[in-house]
Amino acid sequence: MELVAETLAWLTEGANWTGSGGIPNRIIEHLALSGVSLVLAFAIAFPAGVVIGHTRRAANVAVNVANLARAVPSLALIGLVVPLTAAADPELGFKVYPTVIAMVVLGVPPILVNTYTGVSDIDRELVESARGMGMTGAQTLTRVELPLALPVLVGGVRSAAVQIIATATLGAIFGGGGLGRFLVEGIAQNDAGKIFGGVVLVAGLALLAEGAFALAERALTSPGLRVQRKAWDPRLAPATNAPPT
């Protein structure tokens, strides 16, 4: 109970909500770091997953690469790239770039695997019907495969976002910003309230991201949207356009 009281006292202390080191500013820093990492991970994983899923080629390579990336500890990766990035940029190369690189590596696997799975699992009859109607490969991809794969794709982004937000705290060990600063400072000051206050904030942010993406997934799989997505089914075209008998 004492730990809970200390945590609540720290979270409700007005001084902790003001200034550059206050909770609002640290949340903004954490979201910025996580957001940039997620966007970069998506930019790498989404095109690769789409190509692999659409062509059904190099799937084993993609899965193996994803599993290898998952096996790399984020803290160890940050430590490995710090000398390189710090040499290139003494300021951001120590505090920001290593964390971003580690978070991108963390975020790529779920997006890559879910994108590949979502596109490759589309009913082959749909794809063949689309091609039989004269659609090109690009048209089949954008008009049939991607719309149907969207819920699975969002699930991958959801998983990546939660992992990145929860793990981005490691950057504070190397002097970076974000909510991890409260953990590092709390340990240095032997302040349990600050430590667990930071933990609560990180967990809350991760849960908010989880909830937001869960709502998006639910919306994409809702009955109303499923009805709309049937319009993408090229097999319905002949029946729709068929002349009356």
The CATH architecture designation is Orthogonal Bundle
Averaged pLDDT, please?
85
Note the main sheet. Answer: none
Name the structural class: mainly alpha
Range of strand content: under 5%
Enumerate the spans where pLDDT stays under 50 for 5 or more consecutive residues: 235-245
CATH class: Mainly Alpha
Annotate the secondary structure layout.
Layout: H1 2-12, H2 23-55, H3 59-71, H4 74-88, H5 92-95, H6 97-120, H7 124-132, H8 137-167, H9 180-189, H10 192-220, H11 223-229, H12 236-241
Helix pairs in contact: 1-10, 2-6, 2-8, 3-6, 4-6, 6-8, 7-8, 8-10, 9-10
Describe the protein in words.
This protein has 245 residues and is an all-alpha fold. It has a single domain, classed as MetI-like (MetI-like fold, Orthogonal Bundle), CATH 1.10.3720. The chain is built from twelve helices and no strands. Helix 4 (74-88) crosses helix 6 (97-120), helix 8 packs antiparallel against helix 10 and helix 9 (180-189) packs antiparallel against helix 10. The longest helix has 33 residues, at 23-55. The protein starts with a helix and ends with a helix.
Summarize, please.
The protein contains twelve helices and no strands.
Q: Key terms for this structure?
A:
disordered C terminus, mainly alpha, 245 residues, MetI-like fold
